[in-house]
Design brief:
Two copies of one chain form a homodimer. Chain A is of the alpha/beta class and about 220 residues long. Chain A has eleven helices and six strands. Chain A starts with a strand and ends in a 7-residue tail after the last helix. The first copy, chain A, binds a DNA duplex (30 and 30 nucleotides) through helix 8 and helix 10.
Chain lengths: ~220, ~220
DNA sequence: ACTTCTTTAGGTGTTTTACTGAATCCTCTA
DNA sequence: TAGAGGATTCAGTAAAACACCTAAAGAAGT
């Protein structure tokens, strides 16, 4: 059987070298590519010249999910294995939804990584124990009411609230938002209060982060 | 001559494995320790059982400088090599000041890392080209004025300002920040104002985004 | 018709921001 | 060694934003 062709994506070149070296003595595995971004890899990866792509993610960025989705679409034969340094359910689910077939965390080791690569090449999914624990806990929470309601609310911002949130997260002041939407400053305050209550946020700082996480605004 | 004993500090175990593997075929180098934090290493490192400690840092945290300083004090014979995933002049200078004898960035590769380890063991300092370029540009900045001053300001947040920014961007209120840093709320306000003036930010929303962009805090 | 949610907005008191000034400490340099 | 300059500390004052509450008009569904 041919060697398993593995491509790496890690924004830090040293880490690419490290993983490459980590897998160098596994005779069935061959590293065929290293890229700093998923976008780069998509361009480099002609003719599906890889069985497995390991994408290393350091910070939870919703955009990564889109990029992985794009990667899966452009190269359907490639199996994507995410190695995330964070353990945020929401993000991990996003990656799975985007088409990632496996997920490891920083708790992983060489053997698990090799096992994951083999498993993915053979057409099966592979999730680290730390991940499956998360997923299990998430399912068990599913029957819960409070938790479910919270998650529900998280998606049910009204149109107006979205507009206010968007402008606020773009550094508009309350007065500017009020003028632009032809409403009172007090109404803007109300909307912001309601947003925070709905999503269960403590401060406006959290509101900014929420907007960034959900791609309502850019980080720039 | 004895092998060079190298200890690793990386909060992500996989990365420790990766670097260990990366250096495994260098016959003169032997990895003797792996820790997730500098604090852990200090406790594990009896009798200066290492010539070089590689500390991998992902986000710019002033506390890391203090920990490295402590490490240098407790184990004077150990040479500290920092591998930072960021390139913020201010922080790099802090690490050097704290006693780090070398500094690499994510742009580094195996050969450079090996060279750095050898150099440090021999009692000399080693800074990656990307770092020396930063330092050079920093010195040359004296000539230009307006344009260069902006870039200057953008990277010259003081330690205290960094601490305040970090806590603020982690959703702490001014009062909480004040209590934690044992200063007045008015002082916290001053620091926040100074940060915004230095980096030329309009609102606190921009400040949150700045912190996220520069990996000072995460998005969640 | 009734409930529920959205959108609107005000009251009141607290917190944060904008802008300014200023004292103390540390470091670097002439 | 004295002075310049930045870092760190704190305060006064007016404006803005926030927390917590109430509440009315309208739209949508049961």
């Amino acid at each position: 059987m041919d060697k398993i062709k593995v491509a790496l994506v890690d924004e830090h070149p040293v880490m690419c070298d490290g993983i490459q070296s980590l897998l160098s003595d596994v005779i069935d595995i061959q590293i065929v590519h290293s890229s700093r971004t998923v976008t780069d890899l998509i361009q480099k990866l002609y003719f599906d010249w890889a069985n497995v792509v390991i994408v290393v993610l350091y910070t939870p960025d919703p955009e990564d999910a889109e990029l992985i989705s794009l990667l899966c679409k452009k190269h359907p034969k490639v199996q994507v294995l995410v190695l995330s340094m964070y353990r945020i359910e929401n993000m991990i689910f996003k990656m799975i939804k985007a088409g990632a077939k496996g997920h490891l965390t920083s708790e992983t080791n060489r053997d698990e990584m090799v096992e994951a690569i083999y498993t993915l090449r053979n057409g099966f999914d592979f999730y680290a124990k730390t991940i499956t624990n998360l997923i299990l806990r998430n399912y068990l929470n599913g029957s819960d009411e409070a938790a479910e309601a919270r998650r529900e609310r998280e998606k049910s911002l009204s149109t107006r609230e979205m507009e206010v949130l968007k402008l606020f997260a773009r550094s508009y002041t309350n007065k500017e938002i009020a003028d632009r939407l032809f409403i009172s400053v007090r109404t803007v305050e109300s909307h912001k209060n309601n947003i925070m209550r709905k999503i269960n946020l403590k401060t406006t700082v959290d509101m900014v982060k929420f907007a960034i996480r959900n791609n309502i605004v850019d980080v720039y």
